[in-house]
Amino acid sequence: MSNILVLQNLAKHFPGVQALADVSFSVRTGEVHCIAGQNGAGKSTLIKILSGAYQADAGQIIYKDAPVTIANPQAGFRMGISVIYQELDLIPDLSVAENIWLGQYPRGRGGLIAWGGMQNASRALMETLGCRFSVTQPVGSLSPGEQQMVAIAKSLSHKASVLIMDEVTSSLSDHEQVRLFQVIARLKAQGTTIIYITHKLNEIFELGDRVTVMRDGRYIGTWDIAETNQDFLVEKMIGHKIEARSDAAHPATGDVLLQVDGVSNPHVLRNVSFRLHKGEVLGIAGLVGSGRTELLRVLFGLDNQAVGRITLGGRLVRPRNPIEAQRLGLALVPENRKTEGLVLSMSVLENFILPSLRKFQRIGFVRGGQAQAGAVETAAQLNTKFSSLHDDVVTLSGGNQQKVVLGKWLLAGADVLLLDEPTRGIDVGAKEEIYRLIRRLAQEGKGILMVSSEFPELLTACDRILVMRAGRIVGEFDAKASRKEEIMERAIVGDNGAYDSEIGIPNL
Length: 508
Description:
22 strands, 25% strand
């Protein structure tokens, strides 16, 4: 099989950082070539060089057997190299067709936009992807998976020969992921080359033909998928073997910290009851739409329509909003750290101390020295990496951003941590650090309620696992003595109505 893309000795330097150093490898025509590595490995810089957003300081790109200079993203599009990023560059208020052809609208007589032709061409593209939704509806009305398909269609409209996908499944449901994988297989069969970047190792083994590992801006190696395994890849990505953890899950023996009785709301939740002990990591499993996130929102005061009882530290509480929930000792690490967990226009320091301003205030003024000292200490405890506390938090890697989201609540002194997909979109090394942090917090007596779509992660990090389906708790498992297949089965088929009985519970 011939090579469509050859990278020779690529290098890129930013002030204080060597982002890429002497990176060389090739991509074959019509393959799914996965790129793996921790945050900071150089994957994003490499993608931006291939797309024309960055220029390499040294090295050469050979595309279709000829040396090329990709001056900007438009030049990359014209060559047939297209990138689909984790955060889609679609305009919500424009229609599907308008987004697909943005910047290249077909023209008719007199130079007017040929709306009919554009819509017909859009329908043809969407049909090749197996999509049946209207091309005239606004993109903002589509699900994340459908928007992903529009982004792919937009790339195909540029006649892309090389399609680069960067963490494209991070916001997709299981069903949408299956559909996306079917589309990738179809594109591959048609001869399109896919460069696929992901933190999810199972996706590499499901989709890939070959995998390239990068670490600290350097090329480590390329292997056929059939010749490697997950342990091997992890070792290459982090530079050493992951030692077996001595802090494995254990049955909780502490006092009941949080008790939930008969919590329901008009939308999803139906008579949810459970107990969380001091020092316990309690997992919540379930498929998309099962009510996991909605439960955390109720506990954090984001849903005032819920009914039922919430008892915290033996006291009946009724958090009406996040401020009240925080004062009670509750903290929420939301699923989307960028839109809900951080203020991206603020610095690392400001994000760290935001929930703790009252703690550091005196007669209305923030004691800057104490606040900074607290942030420095918390950042060190979490091994958070940044150049300065005054850097914008948006400049940090995904794993370090997540540590800031966790750290701000540790600095605030929360007793109960509500974690919604705490390792989504971060690399395997950062995941291990988050797991260690969760276990350490549990050992300090915190109560942790952890939602995750990855059942192996729940088995690794938790003591017990509750399974939700259609807004109800339909099962409970000991994490040490259970298998992911058992949890998956319960999440899919439920419990045959064993939890259907309704009881009268007063309003919160």
